[in-house]
Amino acid sequence: MAFQLPTLAFPMNALAPAMSEETLQYHYGKHHQTYLTNLNTAIQGTPFERMSLEEIVLASDGINQGVFNNAAQAWNHAFFWMCLSPKGGKKPQGELLGKIEERWGSFEEFRKQFTAAAAGNFGSGWTWLVLTPQKTLEIVNTSNAGSQLASDNTPLMVVDVWEHAYYIDYRNSRPNYLNALFDHLIDWEFVAKNYYNAK
User: What pLDDT sits at residue 94?
Assistant: First the structure.
């Protein structure tokens, strides 16, 4: 069965003005769709055709770069949309907040270091909050289609820093985009759920 765009948990205009409907039309409706279209074409008639998206990412990593790039980009984007909410922003609560404060001293310092890592992530890629096998929180940058799904870490949150994620709304100002995500859109309830499931 061909992979299809996941249904968003919010209307296309619900993230505005931090993320405009036009950005979602292009980013979700065109870029994300293109990865899925290319993936469906690439796996036709291969063993990958019978696998889940997660299984394809893991099985193709280092084996078939074309399949991996499209599968990982499709998975990364689906995860990114789940990290956003029109009721997002502010800061996490409870145990996750305590874990962040334990690791970085304060939520504000974590935000500062995360946004610095994301703003400085050279070229195109993704910036992640992960839980390591040692049960510590870390900020990780990946390039291009690099995915923390294909690692020993558990991804808790991701931010897309490909230019198509922010150029319509923020032109070349990646820091302004990152600040808007933290101020208005990051769904800390979803991030906390990922943490509780993995700890």
Answer: 96
Task: Judge contact between 155 and 149, C-beta under 8 A.
Answer: yes
Instruction: Say how far apart CA 173 and CA 48 lie, in whole Å.
Output: 38
Classify strands 125-131 and 154-160 as parallel, antiparallel or unpaired.
Answer: antiparallel
Please confirm whether the linkage preceding 92 is cis (ω < 30° from 0): no
pLDDT at 196: 97
pLDDT of residue 199: 87
Q: Is the pLDDT of residue 1 over 80?
A: no
- pTM value > 0.90: yes
Q: Which residues are CB-contacts of 148 (< 8 A; sequence separation ≥ 6)?
A: 128, 130, 140, 142, 154, 155, 158
CA dihedral sign of residues 191, 136, 159, 8: negative
Query: What is the average per-residue pLDDT within 127-146?
Result: 98
CA distance 8 to 147: 21
Q: Give the DSSP H/E element, type plus range, for residue 180.
A: helix 174-180
CA distance readout (Å), 105 to 85, 102, 130, 165, 196: 26, 6, 17, 30, 21
